[in-house]
Amino acid sequence: GQQVMQIPQYQHVQEGEDFTTYCNSSTTLSNIQWYKQRPGGHPVFLIQLVKSGEVKKQKRLTFQFGEAKKNSSLHITATQTTDVGTYFCAGPYAGGTSYGKLTFGQGTILTVHP
Amino acid sequence: GAGVSQSPSNKVTEKGKDVELRCDPISGHTALYWYRQRLGQGLEFLIYFQGNSAPDKSGLPSDRFSAERTGESVSTLTIQRTQQEDSAVYLCASSFSGTKAYEQYFGPGTRLTVT
Questions:
Q1: How many CB pairs lie under 8 A apart between chains A and B?
Q2: Which of B33, B56, B109 sits opposite A42 (nearest CB)?
Q3: Hey, are the CB atoms on B102 and A100 less than 8 Å from each other?
Q4: Residue from B36, B28, B8, B53 nearest B92 by CA
Q5: Mean pLDDT (chain A, rounded)
Q6: Lowest-confidence region among A14-23, B37-46, B77-86
Q7: What percent of chain A has pLDDT over 90?
Q8: CA–CA separation, B55 vs B71, rounded Å?
């Protein structure tokens, strides 16, 4: 079945350092979505990428979608303590008629030391 | 406008009891999802309702789990004869639906503790 894998599982950084998490799918994706979950909170949508090779930026966050549309990355420049949380990627299910169903990666837990 | 709401926010129950969790999606969202998240873990898909189509129940872990949705509104997730391994946060999300995947809006979750 379709799998979406994320690495690393955990990342500890000093405030001001950069951070990157990688997402890989076993199947080609029509789009990729990224979510952030703060400790004790619920996942919140960050962004969606659709086109092959697409790059989008949100302030210090840069999102990329691979040329083959099977991988994606999230890069945070100069991390801040407010970036703490778990970052999930999610891709649409590739089979059946469950349009709209997402397969979530296991997430990368980011901790930022001040 | 109002987001996705879930009730109760916390539920403590004894092993063997039945529990019912409720989700009110965002108005106009025809797709509704239930996920389970154990402590420190990722999101485990449980069930997906898409408009009037038959629900995708492929993620339900056992026949003790069931869910219903009334039209395009409220959904309830029922867990019968709860076990300690059912302890987790149960998240509901809603989205527009169609032939592509739209962003999902999550509720605050119900934290279920089975003693």
A1: 70
A2: B109
A3: yes
A4: B36
A5: 92
A6: B37-46
A7: 80
A8: 12
